[in-house]
């Protein structure tokens, strides 16, 4: 066996033995049950290919999470996204989980696909790159994956997947079963070659919102293992727009969970110390990526700009 590959496998074994022990002790997980019910099982090959954007000098995309209500806020955000994409340009949409409230879908023929996805986004002629949220796994995760074979817009090649778009490598993760997702991420990052590395998933690591930060073991392991490799983590889960930064990590944490579901009367009291921007309005995030520059902009449900951030290589 090649010495370099052997060392890589030993490091991987040690890493996942450690994280399995820590997370197992911390949460008392029933891994067998989680693997079967939470969308952890991978396909032998991806259901759909995502290679339309390779070799591009620049890409532009929008990101929304917690959108699947079919109600007025989702429709307003969808309209604002369509207008922004027409004005500024968009290549695709990242759909960050909780795609169908309150309990996911039951099959590929579930009418919620029409009411909470196809109809709200009828004016956005773009592919949607989809990951699962915690509400989605209350129904059939498999149905959300296999809807990729029916819809012209909905793209979920697998529960965890990787694709290249211009100067960015994207990693869509099912954060309902982080061990399976991170094992894939470890392998993919080991072969990464583009300037920017972007993870998108449902659950956040840091937040000023109702859910707060992820547990310390999850945050600590992710940042120890991936913090010097991943540039952006884009998530939803919190029904807000937020930019957070851990000063000890190169990773920017961006929450775009204002796609449709709202807090109602319960909103965060104040931003946390490591929060650079926070809005509890419904809205979305737009990103432009070039080889040496990332530009991030948050918009409200009327399409008005709220916050802008640039990061250079």
From TrEMBL:
<dbReference type="InterPro" id="IPR051558">
    <property type="entry name" value="Metallophosphoesterase_PAP"/>
</dbReference>
<dbReference type="InterPro" id="IPR004843">
    <property type="entry name" value="Calcineurin-like_PHP"/>
</dbReference>
<dbReference type="Pfam" id="PF00149">
    <property type="entry name" value="Metallophos"/>
</dbReference>
<keyword id="KW-0732">Signal</keyword>
<dbReference type="GO" id="GO:0016787">
    <property type="term" value="F:hydrolase activity"/>
</dbReference>
<feature type="domain" description="Calcineurin-like phosphoesterase">
    <location>
        <begin position="59"/>
        <end position="240"/>
    </location>
</feature>
<dbReference type="InterPro" id="IPR029052">
    <property type="entry name" value="Metallo-depent_PP-like"/>
</dbReference>
<keyword id="KW-0378">Hydrolase</keyword>
<protein>
    <recommendedName>
        <fullName>Calcineurin-like phosphoesterase domain-containing protein</fullName>
    </recommendedName>
</protein>
């Amino acid at each position: 066996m090649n010495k370099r590959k052997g060392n890589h496998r030993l490091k991987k074994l040690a890493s996942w033995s450690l994280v399995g022990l820590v997370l197992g002790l911390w949460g008392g997980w029933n891994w067998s049950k989680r693997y079967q019910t939470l969308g952890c099982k991978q396909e032998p090959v991806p259901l759909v290919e995502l290679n339309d954007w390779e070799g591009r000098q620049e890409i532009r995309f929008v990101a929304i999470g917690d959108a699947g209500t079919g109600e007025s806020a989702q429709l307003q955000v969808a309209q604002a996204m369509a207008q922004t994409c027409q004005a500024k340009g968009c290549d695709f949409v990242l759909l960050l989980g909780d795609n169908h409230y309150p309990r996911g879908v039951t099959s590929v023929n579930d009418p919620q696909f029409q009411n909470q996805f196809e109809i709200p986004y009828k004016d956005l002629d773009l592919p949607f790159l989809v990951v699962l949220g915690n509400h989605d796994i209350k129904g059939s995760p498999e149905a959300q994956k296999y809807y990729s074979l029916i819809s012209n817009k909905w793209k979920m090649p697998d529960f965890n997947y990787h694709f290249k778009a211009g100067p960015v490598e994207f990693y869509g993760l099912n954060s309902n079963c982080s061990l399976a997702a991170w094992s894939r991420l470890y392998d993919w990052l080991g072969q990464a070659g583009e300037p920017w590395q972007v993870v998108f998933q449902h659950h956040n690591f840091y937040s000023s919102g109702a859910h707060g930060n992820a547990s310390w073991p999850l945050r600590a392991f992710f940042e120890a293992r991936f913090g010097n490799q991943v540039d952006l983590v884009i998530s939803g889960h919190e029904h807000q727009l937020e930019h957070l930064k851990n000063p000890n990590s190169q990773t920017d944490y961006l929450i775009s969970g204002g796609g449709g579901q709202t807090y109602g009367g319960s909103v965060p009291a104040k931003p946390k110390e490591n929060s650079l921007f926070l809005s509890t309005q419904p809205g979305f995030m737009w990103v432009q990526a070039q080889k040496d520059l990332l530009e991030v902009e948050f918009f409200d449900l009327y399409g008005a700009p709220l916050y802008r951030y640039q990061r250079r290589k």
